[in-house]
Design brief:
Layout (H helix, E strand, L loop, with lengths): L2 E3 L8 E5 L2 E8 L6 E5 L21 E5 L16 H14 L5 E6 L1 H12 L4 E7 L8 H14 L5 H8 L2 H6 L1 H12 L3 H13 L13 E6 L7 H10 L3 E6 L6 H4 L1 H19 L1
Parallel strand pairs: 4-5, 4-6, 6-7, 7-8, 8-9
Antiparallel strand pairs: 1-2, 2-3, 3-5
């Protein structure tokens, strides 16, 4: 299991082969800091956290990675399952000799985080479950998206995705941010998208939440149509020792739409957990 630098132009990004796939990752923050593992959403990559990392990296060792089938990580034949993607995350921290970590995930990343918290509680110091859910019906919605992706690639999904991920005022207010997200979506290959989206489609892990023992922050945008406040409330009610924070004027990628409020809530939560661990 070798760790290799990807290219000189990609700076600190490295790859490690774990669980049958080459996974791209990077670290930010002090080497002696407690690790915060961050998992990306569907049709994004580790750069979706660019605006979040500076709020953490003065104290925490932030470990970001690209989920299998996304970004610079390898796309293996699908379909995938959330359990497989969680096994990837666990294998990554194993390879990097990380015994325990805070785990933060948004949307699909939050689904992966739920699995880690339920199945590997001894490895998880806390969970940040952001704009995510434990089930994602209906199946017909995904079949329609798969048909579009198969014929037109993720380019066929980009406009509807952006409208779902952000409120209309933000789309009008920050075209530069929207363009960065657009490029991120378009960089996602069709095969990787369908493989991971199949995992989201088939997920059913509400009862699994009863096994989560780590302190948990459930964070959601008030206007999120993809993973709603109602779905976040299910997470909050099912997970003991959880707290729910609803961010106003934010949709699905709340960390990008309301970065100050998102970062403040996440940092305060992590610091409280750290104080309790001391």
């Amino acid at each position: 299991m070798g760790v290799e630098k990807m290219t000189k132009t990609e700076g600190e990004i490295k790859k490690v082969r774990v669980n049958g796939a080459a996974i791209a990752y990077r670290f930010d923050g002090p080497e002696g800091g407690r690790v915060v593992l961050m998992s990306n959403s569907l049709m994004s990559d580790h750069t979706m956290w660019d605006i979040t990392v500076p709020a953490l990296a003065d104290r925490y060792r932030v470990l970001r990675y690209d989920t299998r089938g996304h970004g610079r990580s390898e796309t293996t034949p699908g379909p995938y399952s959330i359990a497989l993607l969680a096994d990837d995350a666990l294998a990554l921290i194993d390879a990097l000799e990380i015994r325990q970590a805070h785990v933060v995930g948004l949307s699909m990343g939050g689904m992966i985080a739920q699995q880690l918290g339920a199945r590997f509680p001894e490895r998880v110091l806390s969970l940040g479950l952001c704009d995510t859910a434990s089930e994602m019906p209906p199946r017909s919605l995904w079949e329609e998206r798969f048909a579009i992706a198969s014929s037109r690639g993720t380019a066929g999904l980009v406009d509807s995705t952006i409208q779902r991920w952000f409120t209309a005022p933000f789309i009008a207010r920050d075209p530069a941010a929207i363009e960065r997200v657009r490029r991120m979506i378009l960089s996602t290959g069709t095969e990787g998208y369908i493989a991971c989206a199949s995992a989201v489609r088939d997920m059913a892990q509400t009862t699994m939440l009863l096994r989560v023992k780590a302190p948990t922050l459930v964070l959601v945008g008030r206007q999120d149509p993809a993973c709603t406040v109602e779905q976040a409330t299910v997470l909050h009610r099912m997970i003991d020792r959880s707290e729910l924070v609803v961010l106003e004027e934010a949709a699905h990628l709340s960390n990008i739409e309301q970065p100050q409020a998102f970062n403040a809530a996440l940092r305060a939560f992590l610091d409280r957990v750290e104080t309790a661990l001391a």
